Amino acid sequence: MHFLLRRDLEAVRRSGMRIYSKDGDFELRDVNVAASPVNIGRVDWVICALKATALEDAEALVRPCLGPGTRIVALMNGLGIEQAFAEWFGGQRVFGGMAFVCINRGEPGVIRHLDYGRVSIGHYEDDPAETERLRELLASGGIEVLVAPNLQFARWEKLCWNVPFNGLSVAAGGVGTRSILGDEALSKVGRQAIREVCAVGNADLESHGSGARLDGEKMVDSMFAQTEAMGDYRTSMVIDYVCGRPLEVEAILGEPSRRAADLGVAAPTIDALYALVRAADRRRRGEMAVLTEGDLGTA
Amino acid sequence: MHFLLRRDLEAVRRSGMRIYSKDGDFELRDVNVAASPVNIGRVDWVICALKATALEDAEALVRPCLGPGTRIVALMNGLGIEQAFAEWFGGQRVFGGMAFVCINRGEPGVIRHLDYGRVSIGHYEDDPAETERLRELLASGGIEVLVAPNLQFARWEKLCWNVPFNGLSVAAGGVGTRSILGDEALSKVGRQAIREVCAVGNADLESHGSGARLDGEKMVDSMFAQTEAMGDYRTSMVIDYVCGRPLEVEAILGEPSRRAADLGVAAPTIDALYALVRAADRRRRGEMAVLTEGDLGTA
Lengths: 299, 299
Description:
Two copies of one chain form a homodimer. The first copy, chain A, has helices at residues 9-15, 55-62, 81-89, 128-140, 151-171, 177-181, 184-207, 216-228, 236-242, 249-263, 268-284, 293-296; strands spanning 2-4, 17-21, 26-28, 32-34, 45-48, 71-75, 94-105, 110-123, 145-147. By secondary structure, chain A is of the alpha/beta class. In chain A, strands 2, 3, 5, 6, 7, 8 and 9 form a seven-stranded mixed sheet that branches. Chain A has a two-stranded parallel ribbon with strand order 1-4. In chain A, helix 5 runs antiparallel to helix 7, helix 7 crosses helix 10 and helix 10 packs antiparallel against helix 11 (268-284). At the A-B interface, helix 7, helix 9, helix 11 and helix 12 of A face helix 7, helix 9, helix 11 and helix 12 of B.
């Protein structure tokens, strides 16, 4: 097994990886690390766990590892991810994975696993034999795997958490999940966002000829119950926000908002979360001016 | 004419008021100022221009100025304002006024008038003779007055601007109107907010037996065209936000959101703006914790 690393490269090379997990801490020593995919070469499986904001880098990072039979798992957030891989490398070898896991990176070489750990998978062309191949691989590593009715279903299901909780954690100014659950007005918006994700997702599934359907009210109950059990979880998007890094705004919010418009489904809550998180990202890039007290005297 | 002042009291007593206006600058010297309504006593008209966040102070501030024939104009933002005055003092003497004006306070004693200046008025019990009395009074002072079909109509009409532009200016992180108009995603949310205000307003008017109706698409066009002409206007709510003052969140966003729920009208955009601006106000009061980089290491 090889790890292509950037920030954590030197730390892992020096002293391996430490995983602090609610299921028990452990260390990986003598990890094969590489700074370039060229130093890895051809492999059987590529698991691509880039941020969606780095999707455009994925082609160049993955290609040196590909042989004729290499398969690729996009273990990433958002919509539109597998399409990109399929265009670059052909859809028959592309899989999507949605990790339902509470995990934060700590100092270099350290991973904190707070809760959950299920991975929901699908094959880009929904080939059952191929899906089973990936299921076996992950299950043999002790990972809880869920095979989704189809990949698109799994993507929308994951968005039922990511849209409300990533979205609100940043739009509400940089807060943890407990601040959302403890605020009735924010929770109401979160519930409405989940209903809209299900409505858009169902229209999308129908337009692709899939009979799979998301049940809005069941998803509301399930997402809120799961989040309640997380404590004051910090979403990946709020961590990026607080640290001043690019936000996965297009993959998690922009694509669903555009898909809704294309399908003619009203999604005002998704639209609002998209616009406001996008504004946060534009402020970070200096593309949107934040007013200060100094601006007001001469207004 | 008497002015009940707080922050500006000493400056105005000392050197009057200076108004920098796009229609021409002028000064008011020897202004009758008072720190307490007791020092003003009974008057014919009270114009109450408090922030909606100070509505609970209005009864004690207005009562010392009331004689049997005193009339009261609530020149304030939001919904539910006149109801409070009517409960305290009786509805027959209560009027509402909506100022469509771009105005900012500068240093004490200074007012900056940037654009517009129309005041839309209505009587709490929709008495035409009473409304005409207020219209004449304001018109005699050179003010452009618009008599609304009824007071509730005028309130919702004003909210067609306040909900999107006050709401977005704060929810987007403290920005001027040009940042909203220049961002297609934020503009889309603003347009949808106006449609929702009209839908809730129309249901409210209908429930009160009024035949007046707001045209959503016309209001969208009109509000955006007027705002386009304002330059990079700073809404009153964004100024309060930047200066760390209480936000008029309940009067401008909370009441419309609750009214929508009571009337069974979907208003997801208003709900979202309410929740997110309320979150900003809760952060200011220290009731909602904002995450910092220091929080993330131990997450």
